[in-house]
Design a protein that fits this description.
By secondary structure, the chain is an alpha+beta fold. Helix content is 24%, strand content 34%.
Length: 103
């Protein structure tokens, strides 16, 4: 895997927002954090972006693409957008402060 450096501006484009569900909160005790990320990014870009924004050391990144659900709106059937989710595992001793906001 090629380690490509990511600018701070690009890092904020890659990581859109943290996921704050009960399941993702429970993962934090295992040093894992969940984010909604840009659909066109790869694992190494996500890793570099998290390391740059939060100044932590990332061990592992797992990604999954969530397919958009079918919905009816005003009689028209359509689909919601697909989104990409990343679960980031940090090194022992590293944590991400939950009060930090992503711009």
């Amino acid at each position: 895997m090629k380690n490509k450096n990511v600018s701070l501006e690009r890092a904020y484009e890659i990581i859109k927002k943290p996921i704050t569900t009960e399941k993702s909160t429970n993962l934090q005790q295992f040093n894992q954090y969940s984010f909604v990320v840009d659909k066109d990014t790869n694992v190494s870009e996500i890793k570099n972006a998290v390391e740059k924004i939060f100044k932590v050391k990332v061990t592992k990144v797992n990604t999954s693409i969530l397919r958009g659900k079918g919905k009816t709106f005003k009689g028209q059937f359509g689909f919601r957008k697909d989104t990409k989710k990343a679960i980031v595992t940090l090194n022992e001793g590293n944590t991400i402060d939950s009060s930090l906001e992503i711009k």
